[in-house]
Give the backbone structure.
Amino acid sequence: MGLFKVQADLASDFVRAIELTDKRDHLKDSREDMDRAVKELDEKISRAEHWELDQMIGFENEGTKAEEKMKETREKQKREQKDRDNFERGGWYYMWG
């Protein structure tokens, strides 16, 4: 009986040592996965568009120029969205208030 109790205590301690809670941030992981997927999709689309444009026009270097222009446009759109978000949250209001 004593041996059984010792084994049961060891098993109980072992089971208690196992963490049952998951401490990962699932929302953060999902956001990172979505951002990565959007970036990959943008790159695939831009490559396909540039390749078709190059084939139709017959220029090999035009795709790189168009790709640079698209990157600049995306950066501008991100800046505009950030400014819009700041304005909607009242970030600029306090500057004049």
Remarks:
- The longest helix spans residues 26-57.
- The chain is about 80% helix and 0% strand.
- The CA atoms of residues 22 and 29 lie 13 Å apart.
- The chain has a mean pLDDT of 77.
